[in-house]
Structure formats: C-alpha cells, structure tokens
C-alpha cells in the first residue's frame, strides 16, 4: 500500500464557510504538523462538506491515521475521517486555470472486477476525462479502510463541465459499459469550493 496522500474530512448535513475552516485548521494543528494544504468544498445539490488535507506522503501511514483520528474525536467528533492514497494524477486540458468546482465519484466494485476497474480507470477513463475541456486536474485515490474504497475527483472550471458532450462521450464508451455495472455503493457529488489554503500560512494568520 502506498503512503497516505490526503486526509479527507466529511461533514454531513451541513455546509461550511471560510471562518469555520480556519477555526478547524487552528484546532487540528497540534496533531497535524505534516499537512501541506487544505481545501474545503460544499455540495451544490447536497447538504454536506468535504475538507481535503494534503499530507506529506513520507509522513503518512498507520501512525498518522491513529493520531489524527484520536485528535479529531476531541476536536469535532461529527466529522468522518477517510485516508486516501493517491493512485493517479493527470493534468487536465484546462490545467492552470481556476477550478472552483470539484466533481467526485466514490465507489466500491465487485471483487472479481477490481483488476479491470483499475485498468479501465488508468488506461481509458481518467485520461479521457482529463482531456475534456474545462477539466483542470483529474486524480484517483484508494482508501485503505472503509467504503466506498475508490475516490476519483475532477477539478473543473464550470459546474457544467461534467455534463458536456465531450465528458458524456468518455462516460459512454464500450469499456465503460462493461465496467460501470460492476460498481457498488457508488456516490457522485458536485461540489463548489469554499476555500483553498497553504496549511501553515493559515496557521500563521490565525495565531
């Protein structure tokens, strides 16, 4: 298993704002010194928030997760913590452009199809979606525990990118038609970014 790359905090039944995120960062600081970056998103059509903490991979792992979970339970027990290991990262056709939206696909897959899921994602699906105009960055992750196990996220210029003809063409390939029916526990969500910061800069500002 690769080292943990991202700690994802999931907040259910709520939206967050920049002040809330800054306060959370300050309270998490004692147990999260290896965090490099924080980015928060609210669901556009759902009442939930995802906060991504990018971690120095060399410092990630079981000890990091154990310490983080214990501290988070004291800081905000309503947040769910998910460890994400980076599997693939591809610059999009619109790399370098502002990306105020993030589209995520979280899924499990029937065990017999796991190898094919990974081959499809790595060789066709993620490269195909990365090449769609309006896609700034495409990444996929795997969690070492919990469900859904796989997490793909696409940073987008527009909330309409994920429904564009070019995007739908990639989703509707013959190989996609074979793999997608083997998804289980699938959750698709479009988010709008609340804030995105260098972690240590935010700590310096709130002190």
Automatic annotation (TrEMBL):
Protein name: Uncharacterized protein
Organism: Pigmentiphaga litoralis
Taxonomy of the source species: Bacteria, Pseudomonadati, Pseudomonadota, Betaproteobacteria, Burkholderiales
